[in-house]
């Protein structure tokens, strides 16, 4: 995939342009314009969509896999789950019913079968945030997220058999911060990790372009950024109005996809409340630190996603994406 083909224009989707009277194939391809706006680690956009007769198959784009940061594919599957849920929400917005299937084996990670008309239920407000949501790396302001909002976020997670827990205890926050510092240092000690991150920064996928992207790539490649990043991220954890972790009973591919689906619902619901989200993935990228996080927080299942939620002044620019047509093919 040519990085130069990524564009921020994809965020300007006109819902009024939905081809209601067109073929199912045309409708699916329009809905995929929303799916590609889903978040993913390093903005790697690890999805390939295969359009069949009334369904969409979702496969992993191996060339966009983060082999150093994500060797077991957890973050890849989370990203695919985010895209799946975005497509489902968009389909419901236009009255298209759909059923999501996940698969623990084989090239097709998920399949969305589009069916008869449905009622949009509570997804309407989530749909409105698809083109508004963004990941914010800045410090968050304001008080902790209210219990009413947290209960809503928990419901979104529970609907997919995913548990959401907020980390409120100061000692637990400090322990998570210690894990973050260690994970950042260990990741930065890996030349392969630094090369991979530098390549994504240099591609412009993380938002910087031109000279800024080249400088960022050089800094990550040649300087020891681990201690600095660790301190910065540990402070973000300590100061976060609300810190959350998503977990699943086990660690199957389908459960990871559902954790991604849950996170996208949560991110959209938070956006509807004027809140931003920011994943912190380094702890979960290190097997030992992931196990430690599970122990520190007393999680019975498997932690899948750690993220901050809070308010922040102003908006950040959306990151660019490859257009839907570039990541879509027709089933043979």
TrEMBL record:
GO terms for molecular function: oxidoreductase activity. Pfam families: Nitroreductase. Residues 138-310 form the Nitroreductase domain. NCBIfam families: Rv3131_FMN_oxido (NF047509). Keywords: Flavoprotein, FMN, Oxidoreductase. SUPFAM superfamilies: FMN-dependent nitroreductase-like (SSF55469). It comes from the Archaea. This is Acg family FMN-binding oxidoreductase. It comes from Halobaculum lipolyticum. Residues 313-332 are annotated as: Disordered.
């Amino acid at each position: 995939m040519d990085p130069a083909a990524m564009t921020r224009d994809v965020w300007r989707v006109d819902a009024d342009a939905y081809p209601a009277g067109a073929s199912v194939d045309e409708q699916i391809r329009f809905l995929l314009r929303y799916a590609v706006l889903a978040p993913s680690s390093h903005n790697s956009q690890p999805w390939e969509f295969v359009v069949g007769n009334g369904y969409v198959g979702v496969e992993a784009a191996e060339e966009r896999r983060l082999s150093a940061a994500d060797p077991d594919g957890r973050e890849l599957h989370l990203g695919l789950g985010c895209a799946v849920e975005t497509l489902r929400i968009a389909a419901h917005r236009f009255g298209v019913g759909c059923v999501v299937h996940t698969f623990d084996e084989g090239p097709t990670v998920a399949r969305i079968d589009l069916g008869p008309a449905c009622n949009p239920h509570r997804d309407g407000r989530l749909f409105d945030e698809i083109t508004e949501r963004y990941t914010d790396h800045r410090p968050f302001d304001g008080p902790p997220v209210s219990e009413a909002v947290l209960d809503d976020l928990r419901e979104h997670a529970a609907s997919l058999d995913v548990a959401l827990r907020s980390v409120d205890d100061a000692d637990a926050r400090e322990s998570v911060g210690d894990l973050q510092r260690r994970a950042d240092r260990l990741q930065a000690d890996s030349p392969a990790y630094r090369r991979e991150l530098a390549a994504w920064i240099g591609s412009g996928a993380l938002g910087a372009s031109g000279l800024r992207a080249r400088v960022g790539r050089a800094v990550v490649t040649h300087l020891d950024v681990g201690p600095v990043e660790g301190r910065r991220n540990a402070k973000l954890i300590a100061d976060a109005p609300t810190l959350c972790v998503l977990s699943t009973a086990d660690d199957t591919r389908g459960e990871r996809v559902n954790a991604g689906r849950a996170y996208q619902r949560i991110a959209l619901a938070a956006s509807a409340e004027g809140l931003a989200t920011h994943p912190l993935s380094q702890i979960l990228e290190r097997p030992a630190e992931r196990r430690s996080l599970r122990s520190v927080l007393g999680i019975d299942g498997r932690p899948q996603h750690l993220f901050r939620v809070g308010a922040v002044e102003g908006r950040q620019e959306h990151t660019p994406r490859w257009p839907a047509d570039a990541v879509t093919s027709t089933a043979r």
